[in-house]
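so ive been stuck on this for like two days lol. basically i have the seq below and the ligand is magnesium ion, smiles is in there too. i just want the complex predicted, nothing fancy, no docking runs or whatever. if the output looks off dont worry ill sanity check it later, just need somthing to start from for the group meeting slides
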Amino acid sequence: MTRWPTRIAGLAATLALGGGAAYGTGAAVAGSPPSSLPAPAHRPGDVREPLNIADLVTQIDRYYGGTKNADGSWSAAAESPYTRDVRRVEQAARKHIAEAARKHTDETARKGARRGGKPAVVLDVDDTMLLTYDYEKSTNFTYAVKSFTDYVRKADRGPVHGMPELVNYAKGKGMEIFFLTASAEDVRAPFAKNLAKVGVRTPLDRAHLFLKDKVDPPAYLRRACGAGDAWTCDGARYKAATRKYIESRGYDLVASIGDQASDFPGGHADRTFKLPNPMYRVD
Ligand SMILES: [Mg+2]
């Protein structure tokens, strides 16, 4: 069965939206665009010439402060327009977490029990905790499951600026920390290893790190999404069902932090924080 990959490469999506043939770029479009993308316009006069892909890549490189290293890998600058935007979101999340922690403490002192459960924060992983800029450059922004899985297995990605520190801060404020990714169960070990490597100092066991197992999902996901070939959930519904399960275990998710719009629909979090990511879209 041919499927459009769950994660849509930036260049491939740009080409699909443009509705034109690609030539001379080396970029490939795999499969058909997902139904959630806007239908291509049929009247050529309605469509202005899109930004040239080469110029778009240049903009993205400038945004990240990209530098090519001697070994061919790419680094993002510690100070860049990207890290400035990340810092803005991180600081807003930090402020909200501090306030939420104080409210929970006040409630506990007044009532002797936490209202609405134990405070917790849920975070996505790719481009929320671990940066994929180097991978995207290595593939010319054209995601493929195999090349990305090979890359993830190295467990050598750098952090999204300031995010491990935010996680440790939240933990210090009494928050339980959950990581929720749509990546498959078979990369659990490198995900946990890489998160620890970038400085996360919170539990990374199965109760705190959630990956997607479509073949043999836990009962709460089987009810919401099915299993195997009968799996019905897109990334947003998978994540909402998992947040609902976390809440059912007695937690109040005071914040949900991610880099994709699909990280947030479906509720089960008091407030959401969206980090920047111009490289691809996950539906
Ligand atoms: Mg992500």
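The mean pLDDT is 85. The chain is about 40% helix and 15% strand.
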